[in-house]
Amino acid sequence: MDHFTYKNDALHAEDVAIADIAAAVGTPFYVYSHATLTRHAQVFTESLKSVKPLICFAVKANSNIAVLKTLAAQGLGADVVSEGELRRALAAGIVPSKVVFSGVGKTRSEMKFALEAGIHQFNVESDRELIALNEVAGSLGKKAPIALRVNPDVDAKTHAKISTGKKENKFGIDIDDAPRIYAIAQSLPHLDVQGVSVHIGSQLTELAPFRAAYARVRTLVESLRASGINIRTIDLGGGLGVPYATDDAPPPPAEYGALVAEMFGDFGAEFIFEPGRLICGNAGILVTEVLYVKQASHTYVIVDAGMNDLMRPALYDAVHGIVPVRIGKAPSAVVNVVGPVCESTDVFLKNIDMPLPHEGDLLAFRTAGAYGASLSNTYNSRLLIPEVMVKGAEFSVIRPRLSYADMLALEVTPEWI
Ligand SMILES: *Cc1c(COP(=O)(O)O)cnc(C)c1O
Hints:
Structural class: alpha/beta
CATH superfamily of the largest domain: Alanine racemase
Bound molecules: pyridoxal-5'-phosphate
Helix content: 25-40%
Number of domains: 2
Number of strands: 21
Shape: globular
Number of helices: 12
Strand content: 25-35%
Distance between the termini: 56 Å
Radius of gyration: 23 Å
C-alpha cells in the first residue's frame, strides 16, 4: 500500500498534487511519501515481533539522509556497504550500535572508520577479509564484532543480476566451508565472533528460497554452537520483493515473519534483518515530462528522464508501471516510452497500451523509491535530479538539482594540456 493516489483525476503524493511539485522544482524528479516509508517500517517491524528484530535498512536501496532519518525515527538501523553509506547513516542520526557493515570488498580505511565509530557488526565475506580486519582492529587496540556471511547455494529465483546466494556468485563463504573459516576467526585475537549472516538476493517473490537458505543457516548455527562457538546474532538479510508492473505478487511481510518464527522461534539469538526495497520501493515515484511523441516504426513517447536517472530497466530488465499525472480523455495507443540518453538501452517500456500523451504532459514511474535515485548517475553529462519528500500537505526538496556550474567546477584541467 502507498500514498500515491488520484484526487479529482490529479495524481497526489499524500495531500500534495504532483503537478504543484513539478511547477516548483522542474522535471524530472523523485518524490517520496513520508507516510508510506513510515508505514512500511512499521508493518515489517510488526511482522517480526516474535523474534524482537534489529531491522537494518539497506542504505543502498535509498541513501538520502532525510529518508534514513524518517526510518531511524521508526527504530530502524542501517545495513551499509561503504564508508560513504556509513557516514550517511550517522549523519541521519542512526546510532552505530544499530549498524551492520556488509560487502565483499571493504577497504582497510573503511574498516578503521567503522571500528572507530563502534558499529554493531561486520559481515565478513572471506578468510582474507578476516585477516585484514583482525590487523586493523589490533592496530586500534579494538576487537571487531563479526559475523560470517555464508553462501547457502540456494537459487533465489530472481533476476540473475540480483541473485547472490548461489555458489557461483561472488558473495559470502561457501556454507560447507564455514566451519573451517569460523575456526580461523576464533583463533584471531582482535575479532569477536558473534554471528552468522545470509542474504540470497533481491526482489524475491516466493518464500521457498528463504526457507531453504534459513534451514541451512539453522543447521550451521546448531553445529557451531555444539562446537563451542557462541553465535549470538543471526542476520537473515533482506530481499523480500515488492509488486512491480509485471512481477508476481510477493508474499506479504506477515507470511515472511511467520516463516522466521517457525524456523527460528525457539532459537535464543538477536535477529537482524536487512530489508531495502520492501521499505522504500513503493514509497517513491519518478516524475517526468513528455518532450516529444515521435512516429516511426513505433510510436515513441520521449520523456525527459533517462536511464541515468532510473537505471533499473536498462540494468535488470525491470518494468516500472507508468501512469499519467493528470487523467485525461486521450485515446489509448501502443507506445514505447524512451529517454533521451544516447544508448539503445534507454528504453523504459516497450509496446505498452496507454492513453497517448501529448508534449508537456507529466507521467510518473511507479515503485521508483528503491534503487532509483541511489543508482542514478550523470551519464551524458546530465545533472543529478532532485529528490522531494512529502509529508501530509507539505513538501520539501531533500536533494536539490545540481547546477551546470557545480558540474563543471568538479573538474581540473592540468596546465600542460
Ligand atoms: C542489497 C542488499 C540488501 C537489501 O536487499 P533488498 O532486496 O533491497 O531488500 C540486504 N543485504 C545485503 C547484504 C545486500 O547486498
